[in-house]
Design brief:
- This protein is of the alpha+beta class.
- The protein has one domain: Immunoglobulins (Immunoglobulin-like), CATH 2.60.40.10.
- The chain contains two helices and nine strands.
- The strands form two sheets. Strands 2-8-7-4-5-9 form a six-stranded mixed β-sheet.
- Strand 7 and strand 8 form a beta hairpin.
- The structure holds 2-acetamido-2-deoxy-beta-D-glucopyranose (5 copies) and copper (II) ion.
- The site of copper (II) ion has 6 residues, from loops.
- The site of copper (II) ion (CU) has 6 residues, from loops.
- Keywords: Cell membrane, Glycoprotein, GPI-anchor, Lipoprotein, Membrane, Signal, Transmembrane, Transmembrane helix.
- InterPro entries: BIM1-like (IPR046936), BIM1-like_dom (IPR046530).
- It is found in: Cell membrane.
Length: about 220
């Protein structure tokens, strides 16, 4: 799925068909480099930017453009103004998305244990899987706001044919797609910081299996 020319104007337009592995369109990504998207924790964009999106305390949305016909997706968050790689909290456990183009996740709620209020700064990390090996990452810096509103349907929308299903990660004891079974999608005993790396490995295995099934 890796292609060459990806223009920044296409990223701004949101409406364009994906040419990258995946894009994080909203909240605004720190940046984008197709070649370093596989680098933990933020696809080569590892320093917080000053371009923070005001994001709702409850019911937030995250808009992506998907460049793989089939991808596992997970969303994590780290609290703080420049949290490094401390993406210890899962806010959307791993699931499988199918279909190219616009994909907007809606209805985010935060685990009750998280110390977040109006004005808290944080960074959202979106993890998807690769081609098929390895994890792919991108991050967006946000400020939680009780008055933030979600973007309109020109930015937050699903392309025709986009579907989601339960992730095929049942074999990994450290990952659960049942959000009610753990506070953050990671079973106790699995270190959160380590987990994103594990997810990449899991994705690698899944990719190989999926590829074999296609054949
Ligand atoms: C900053 O974020 C806004 C959306 O919140 C986005 O439209 C804009 O392109 C971003 N600017 C840069 C330089 O990334
Ligand atoms: C929660 O965050 C506020 C400000 O961000 C801080 O003053 C307070 O100590 C934090 N509480 C806990 C329990 O970490
Ligand atoms: C996109 O599809 C997902 C999965 O069905 C759904 O949860 C989400 O709300 C949809 N987004 C929009 C903007 O309708
Ligand atoms: C929930 O967690 C318990 C204890 O770790 C485990 O026995 C059970 O299988 C889990 N359920 C699901 C659906 O993952
Ligand atoms: C699960 O997590 C534990 C603790 O971090 C780790 O030792 C183990 O290798 C993990 N297992 C898998 C299958 O990822
Ligand atoms: Cu790709």
């Amino acid at each position: 799925m890796k292609t060459t020319a990806f223009s920044s104007t296409a990223l701004v337009a949101f409406a364009s068909v994906a040419t990258a592995h995946f894009n994080l369109d909203y909240p605004a990504a720190r940046g984008f480099d197709e070649d370093t998207l596989g680098n933990f924790p933020c696809g080569g964009q590892d320093t917080a930017t000053s371009n923070r999106t005001s994001w709702p305390l409850t019911g937030g949305s995250i808009a992506l453009t998907m460049g793989h016909i089939d991808a596992n997706v997970e969303v994590l968050i780290a609290i703080g103004s420049n949290p490094g790689s401390a993406f210890n909290t899962v806010i959307r456990p791993t699931f499988t998305e199918q279909g190219l183009g616009a994909f907007c996740m809606t209805g985010f709620t935060l685990p009750s244990g998280l110390n977040v209020s109006d004005g808290t700064q944080a960074t959202i990390q979106v993890v998807t899987n690769g081609d098929p090996d390895g994890g792919l990452f991108n991050c967006a810096d946000i400020t939680f706001s009780s008055t933030a509103t979600n973007p309109d349907s020109s930015i937050c929308k699903n392309a025709t044919g986009v579907t989601v299903s339960v992730a095929k990660v049942a074999g990994n004891p450290n990952v659960t797609s049942d959000a009610t079974n753990s506070t953050n999608g990671v079973k106790s005993g699995a270190a959160g910081g380590v987990k994103a790396g594990l997810v990449g490995l899991v994705f690698a295995g899944l990719g190989a299996v999926a590829f074999a099934l296609v054949l």
